[in-house]
Amino acid sequence: SVHERVDTFHDNDQKPVGHGRMLRKEDPRFLRGRGRYVDDIQLPGMLHLAILRSPVAHARIVGIDTSAAEASPGVAAVVTGAMLAEQGLAWMPTLSNDVQAVLATDKVRFQGQEVAFVVAENRYAARDALELIDVEYDVLDPVVDARRALAPDAPVIRDDLEGKTNNHCFDWETGDEAATAAVFARADVVVSQDIVYPRVHPAPMETCGAVADFDPVEGKLRLWSTTQAPHAHRTLYALVAGIPEHKIQVISPDIGGGFGNKVPIYPGYVCAIVASIVTGKPVKWMEDRSENLVSTGFARDYIMRGEIAATRDGRILAIRTNVLADHGAFNGTAAPVKYPAGFFGVFTGSYDLEAAYCKMTAVYTNKAPGGVAYACSFRITEAVYLVERIVDCLADELGMDPAELRLKNFIRPEQFPYTTKTGWVYDSGNYEPTMRLAMQMAGYDELRREQAAKRARGELMGIGIAFFTEAVGAGPRKDMDILGLGMADGCELRVHPTGKAVVRLSVQSQGQGHETTFAQIVAEEIGIPPADIDVVHGDTDNTPFGLGTYGSRSTPVSGAAAALVARKVRDKARIIASGMLEVSVADLEWEKGAFRVKGDPGRSVTIQDVAMRAHGAGDLPEGVEGGLEAQICYNPSNLTYPHGAYICVVDVDPGTAQVTVRRFVAVDDCGTRINPMIIEGQVHGGLTDGVGMALMEMIAFDEDGNCLGASLMDYLIPTALEVPDWETGFTVTPSPHHPIGAKGVGESATVGSPPAIVNAVVDALKPFGVRHADMPLTPSRVWDAMRGNPRPP
Ligand code: PCD
Known about the structure:
InterPro entries: Ald_Oxase/Xan_DH_a/b (IPR000674), Ald_Oxase/Xan_DH_a/b_sf (IPR036856), Ald_Oxase/xanthine_DH-like (IPR016208), AldOxase/xan_DH_MoCoBD1 (IPR008274), AldOxase/xan_DH_MoCoBD2 (IPR046867), AldOxase/xan_DH_Mopterin-bd_sf (IPR037165), CO_Mo_DH_lsu (IPR012780). By secondary structure, the chain is of the alpha+beta class. It is built from 18 helices and 32 strands. Strands 3-7-1-14-11-12-13 form a seven-stranded mixed beta sheet, with helices on both faces. A five-stranded mixed beta sheet has the order 9-17-16-15-10, with helices on both faces. Strand 24, helix 13 and strand 25 form a beta-alpha-beta unit. Helix 13 (514-526) runs parallel beside helix 14 (554-581), helix 14 (554-581) crosses helix 15 (607-615) and helix 16 (676-695) crosses helix 17. The longest helix has 28 residues, at 554-581. The two termini are 51 Å apart. Residues 228, 257-260, 373-376, 510-514, 517, 549-555, 670-675, 678-679, 682, 685, 742-747 line the site of ligand PCD. Ligand PCD is lined by residues 228, 257-260, 373-376, 510-514, 517, 549-555, 670-675, 678-679, 682, 685, 742-747.
């Protein structure tokens, strides 16, 4: 069993999967500049596409004159929304059952929206010609503030939707309203707080792009694109463009970071496809940094009110929240259909509550569409931020230590599987040891003493705690689908005659190291060294169907599939081995890499021997076909629920209000660990994301709807200078339903770190009576908070 796993390698980690900290197989390629990204694809005769974007947030399109652009040197085609409309291609479905304009026809609805495109001999000719397109706009009032979107006099953004007379997008609720109200009514203490999670952007290092190559003779479309979900995208293209699915190959080569930004289908991909069909040539589209920031999927933008009810001695009874969700101009959220608010329902956190309730209203505004799960399993980041902030507000109200308050209210180990008051079934967890380890690593009591001494001297030091439970690994097909596609994952394993193997995955790595870790999973199960196992992914013609990589689902879903397909191959190998050794199957023992005859260990065959026999001459046991391969489709029975305890120490400069993250301790529990080195890398990256969101990042708009975060000069992302040396630790609570007990971890740190940092800053500002301040905690916001004058975000 996973609990008894023997660590065969010199690694003092607690029971990792064999080959634990092996170096990443993909790195020699990346370190030598030999990665192959979409923009590296060069095809003979390839043309280049550039997109004209709206300069205004809301306007009616009166007319578009493309004649000068068409006459510009090197231009092959200029295409407008009206031209796409003739083919029925001006609108496309989003991943949340809304529609989004590929190119605007009637109106533009956010600054940066796609209005027309030019295809030309090179990127420069295409961009130059954009300047020559003359668009006449009749500018309308924009709706920028979500709080005003439902005002009776607010201009209607989505008048393309039949009968739409307001900017309402959807309502959603979870939990029990009446039961929660009853608990609140009898609670000793109730604390409420307005909390904003501002709009942020995943900003991956590589922007989005595609190379489309439609071959009219074969009738086949090849599309290299920056996608985290090649199979899902292929099906959508087939449905929208009417090209049969087997005539579409989506290839997602090396990807320079995804972070949820590469889950949606963007108009640019569709434009590249149309352009290739129209011109009969391959067409490349690569957006620049500003285009990525202004037009592709943003994240968060939740305006929340949190309320918590407790007894005077610190027993948390209930949590209630009301959320106003800003979805921008088109609902581009990527979430399973039944979950319009993603997995926000886990806002009950890691605590054993009596009741919980959430009511949410989502609205349209004149801002870029999105709501993508930026390093977060569908809105879990917002949920964790809400609960961990409000729990700290309660600790403040009760005058209780925030660590002690959390320890007092954790779901206890014997309560798992634990069903929350909003219906989520946490598979396993053991929270107290994780919390205690973090406190021990941080030297918590000593830190509090240091803080008291500093406070006495007027120095501002803060200690912030966050404890999170995530729900990752979407998902069980009974509950979860994206546009009708179930979220199970396929996996195929072939062992070649010489005992080398290839495993084909339906998920797609964007830097996480799947070529290494999936080889490790298979190696562990079948005894072939990971170096001898090739991992193939990111190519729909060469991998089984599955829904892609996001929401930390690869390990929980495809990782399980890889383990099970390997076991299936091993079962067949066992039968062949029994024939080779002339004993019954029951008389064989499996020891990593070989079958041995029980009681006669000298008689054995290796998996490589079996592979050769499976493909070679000589008899196979009755009824066994040749070859050594298998395929499965794994439908998870539940999500996996990793957890973690984070402690952050900050210093705030009383003169400049600048926050420095001095220390950060992160203890993560993702069940069985496959590659501890990769996990640490994932955690380091996510913690850095957290510093960005907590202290620096925000996509803001002015009152006309101009995006103020359109470049990395204005949208600040953290560098090595803003982050401390991370201190990481771990506990291991395996998932009971995952074949190797592993849970996802890729997003844990992004989810858990913002509340830890904000809690630390608020703690530092306690002498000023501050209970809450909204992210990003830039010096000016901290300054305002110190002056009792928090600015509206
Ligand atoms: N692992 C291990 N162990 C365990 C778990 C895990 O080892 N237990 C590892 C694996 O194998 C891999 C990693 O780690 O490699 C991760 O995993 P996961 O958790 O499963 O996840 P995935 O699915 O793979 O991935 C995804 C994620 C996400 S989701 C995100 S954001 C991010 C992360 O991932 N992104 C990225 N990380 C990263 N990294 C990099 N480099 N890049 C990128 O981009 Mo979303 O929803 O999309 O928003």
